[in-house]
Amino acid sequence: MAKKRSILSRLAPVLALTADLFTQGGSVLDRTPSQISLEAAMAAQAQVTQDWMDRPGVVGTAVGRGSGGKAVVKVYVTALGTAALPQSVAGIPVDVELTGPFLSYADPPSRTKLAAEDNDIDPKASFPRPVPIGVSTGHPDITAGTIGARVTDGSQVFALSNNHVFANNNRGKAGDNLLQPGVTDGGRNPDDALATLFDFEPIQFCGAIVCPLNRLDAALALTTSDDLGVGTPDDGYGTPRSTTMEATLGMKVQKYGRTTGHTVGRVTGINAVIDVDYRTGSARFEGQIIITDGSFSTGGDSGSLVVTKGLLAADRRPVGLLFAGSSNNTIANPIDLVLDRFGVQVDGG
User: 88 versus 112: which is more confidently predicted?
Assistant: First the structure.
């Protein structure tokens, strides 16, 4: 299944070319750095990341797009001037961006503009079965996150979300109930149980000396097609496709989440190495996707599936699994890494 999905993922941009593709909002050739430029920037990023991440105030690096469409090394900081950084490294420009800290997005904010304030659909509400994706969920011991997608291994059906949403930061046990809606939205255990925890990728937290590298914040919950549907509520993007697409710089993407509903953003960083703050400590992630703008997500949107926003075959292709963010950026795990880890595919259109 993983090999087939990998082949389809690579073919997807070609097959979608007549649509163009225009997940980028314009010509791919005009807006995406060349492969040579990307590889040079990634090499430069690898050269400096460990050193720079040890400096106070630096919370991440990535490869982004600079003026003229060439790749740059992006550096994310909590305050400007907190780290002495060069203007270039190995001939690649360095772009410093003020983001503040990156936080896992399970805890909803006390107040934010919600999707329900603009229409009659509230993703925080309790939904009749089968429940749509993109709505409130969570382990009984957390506040609330988002159901990302319905996925399948060919015989069983699962709900996909984050470890910190379904497994309570590694504390969950197989068979634990997962609720819809989440506890902070009125869900009660066991009355509102939608699924049971099936598997999760453990998060390795930073210690006093060593900070292990993570790639995923993801978990599966066993459910049924009678309990969980494949599409978002009517005010969302609909049903995600099963064929994935690799994130590229400038790609236009969308998601539907528990707190902010349906939002649209662009991929502004790839191959990101980011320190993320959780309730239980800090964890470092590598190979992540960065999405801008600041209104794309907030607390409670963790677990949302990020899909392309384009035309025809280029629309609604899974790209990432949202799990964290800052005041102006969102972080997502590459979706192929998530699906391969669990041996599943998105159960979509």
Answer: 88
- Helix (H) or strand (E) holding 255, with range, is strand 252-257
Closest to 231 in 3D by CA, of 142, 130, 102, 93 = 130
> Rounded to whole angstroms, how far apart are CA atoms 44 and 41?
5
Residue 21, pLDDT > 70, answer no
* Pick from 163, 285, 266: nearest CA to 219: 163
Q: Which of 137, 139, 141 is nearest to 149 (CA)?
A: 137
Residue 234, CB-side half-sphere exposure with 13 Å CA sphere: 4
Q: Domains in the chain: how many in total?
A: 1
Evaluate if pTM is beyond 0.85.
yes
The residue range of the domain holding 183 is 103-349
DSSP secondary structure of 213-239: EE----EEEEE-TTTB-SS--TTS--P
Going by C-beta distance under 8 Å and a sequence separation of 6 or more, which residues neighbour residue 55?
A: 82, 83, 84
Residue 95 forms part of a structural domain: no
> What's the CATH code of the domain at 336?
2.40.10.10
Higher pLDDT, 12 or 334: 334
Q: Does residue 306 lie in a domain region? A: yes
pLDDT tens for each residue of 30-51: 468 999 999 999 999 999 999 9
Residue 238 lies in a domain: yes
Question: Whole-angstrom Cα distance, residue 15 to residue 246?
Answer: 14
Q: What is the mean pLDDT of residues 296-301?
A: 97
Look up residue 138 and give its DSSP letter.
Answer: B
Which string of DSSP letters, residue by residue, matches 267-329?
EEEEEEEEEEEETTEEEEEEEEEEEE-TTS--TT-TTPEEEE--SGGGSS-EEEEEEEE-SS-
- Residue 78 domain-assigned? no
Confidence of residue 81 (pLDDT cuts 50, 70, 90): confident
Quick one: DSSP state of residue 94?
Answer: E
